[in-house]
Amino acid sequence: MKTLFRFLCSAALVLGIGFALFVADACRPPPSSPSHADAIIALTGGEKRVNTAIDLLRQGYAEKLFVSGVGPHVTLAQLIAAPGIHQPALPPDLTARITLGRRAYTTIGNAHETTDWTLQQHAQHVILVTAGYHIRRAALELKRTAPALDITLYPVHPGALQSLLSRSSLHLLAREYLKLLGAECSVLTGLPDGNDGLRHHPDTGSAPHSP
Q1: SS3 89
Q2: Angle 78-83-86 (CA atoms, 0-180°, nearest 5)?
Q3: Which of 21, 75, 101, 142 is the least crowded, having the fewest Cβ atoms under 10 Å away?
Q4: Alpha-carbon separation of residue 105 from 68, 97, 155, 200 (angstroms)
Q5: Contact 207, 100 (CB under 8 A)
Q6: Residue 125: what are its φ and ψ, rounded to 5°?
Q7: Cα 133 from chain centroid (whole Å)
Q8: Which helix (H) or strand (E) holds 129?
């Protein structure tokens, strides 16, 4: 009984330390000046991700932007819209460099969809833009499908995490931490990642943006 108790205490301690490190990593700032890449990859599912990626594209950190996980009927204008704020239309020369991927609906799907696109574009180095709490798992899954791809992490910090001690923030961070542990266990054990997280309906294939 004592052995079991000690094991449970040790496991709880390890998980607690791991969670603290995860939170610290999730809150770290993005690089001030990322190196130039072949493409920028933005994953949908949270605020600031797409707009941040577009800002990087504007600043010349890459020539192309791929947005993975876009809904079948969502437009680029809807992706960049912010509540209560008028967003001017993007210039045509910028929108021509943005592609919306409409097949992925999970992080694993993001990895598969992004890998397919980077192979088509012959991209070898990408800047990955997603929430800080999501970026490690997203990069891990992307490395599974594209092990040779060079990935620069560019985390964004959504308003949902402005107060780390709130119940909603802690719940979100704990959920993402457990998902990361699950992904790491899958990689270490060599188990398949299950569902590929992709829509296979012909109307939702990856396509250039629509206004």
Answers
A1: coil
A2: 75
A3: 21
A4: 9, 23, 20, 11
A5: yes
A6: -135, 125
A7: 9
A8: strand 125-131
> Can you list the alpha helix ranges (DSSP code H) found in the chain?
2-26, 49-58, 76-80, 92-95, 107-121, 132-145, 167-189
Global pTM?
A: 0.87
167-189 vs 2-26: helix axis angle to the nearest 10? 110
CA distance 50 to 44: 7
Instruction: Tell the CATH topology of 19-208.
Output: Rossmann fold (3.40.50)
Question: One-letter amino acid identity for 129?
Answer: V
Q: Tell me the C-alpha distance between 131 and 47, whole Å.
A: 8
Could you read off the pLDDT of 171-207 as tens digits, one per residue? 889 999 999 999 999 888 877 666 788 987 645 444 4
State whether the Cα torsion 166-169-173-175 is positive or negative: positive
